[in-house]
Amino acid sequence: MGCGLLYNQTFEQDILNILEHIDGFSSEIGVSKTPVDTQKLVQACKSIRENFPCIDGIENASVFKKAAVFVACFVEIAPIDLDAFSSSKLADKIKSKNPNAIIALGIAFRYLSLARVYRPQETTLVIKNGIKLSMHSYCDFLDMLSQDINLKSHFMVLSLLFEQVIYKTHKNMQYELLDFAEESEEDVEGALYSSTQDDIPPEWDDYTEMWKHPSKKEHMV
């Protein structure tokens, strides 16, 4: 189960929690008031219950599926004006993204933080090691959510993405891994240099050296 941010006993409580999150986030980024269409927000909070796609229902669904349903519904219904953060203190590469995606993703990560994940034999694990994304991945996430998102088409994709993000800092939560492409170092290096030498960009030499020496601190930009 997740924290009490979403899927409370009443959708009204969800609305209050979401509005509180929006107000707090707005204050942090220098926006005095974020315009929210309350009718659309009510619609989104009802939709995550009434249109929940899992056969076993909300109570038996994982926190990843619950987070995915919320994000898909919130972004699709879009209760926040698209230019809401245009004058904010957010980095330029972020403020240009869909504010509904920014808010939905922030709420989803808060919901997942300290959530409980159930595994076979009634093992219960807690998401307590933080949730980390690179700026590059975060922007890609927002770009994806800025497309034509809808619950039916994106629910499972979002659920899988949330799982993989959490597994980055919680290896013990993963199910047994399958090997689909097990390669040796020689195989990978050969793949990098499968073209003629003249076709290989000069910076790939640095990349290959960095790959062969993980302790090397230089990073390509």
Protein architecture, described:
This protein has 221 residues and is mainly alpha-helical. It folds into two domains: 11-173, no CATH class; 178-221, no CATH class. The protein contains nine helices and two strands. The protein has helices at residues 11-28, 38-50, 63-77, 92-95, 99-112, 135-145, 151-169, 185-192, 203-212; strands at 116-119, 123-126. A two-stranded antiparallel sheet has the order 1-2. The longest helix is centred in the C-terminal third of the chain and has 19 residues, at 151-169.
Task: Name a few traits of the molecule.
221 residues, disordered C terminus, mainly alpha, 2 domains, two-stranded antiparallel sheet
Q: Taking all residues together, what is the mean pLDDT?
A: 83
Number of domains: 2
What is the number of helical segments per DSSP (H or I, 4+ residues)? 9
- Unreliable residue runs: 199-221
Estimate the helix proportion, in percent: 40-55%
* C-alpha termini separation: 40 Å
The arrangement of helices and strands along the chain is HHHHHEEHHHH
**Beta-strand content:** under 5%
Q: Give, in spatial order, the strands making up the sheet with the most strands.
A: 1-2
Largest sheet: 2 strands, antiparallel
The geometry reads as: globular
Structural class: mainly alpha
Radius of gyration: 21 Å
Number of strands: 2
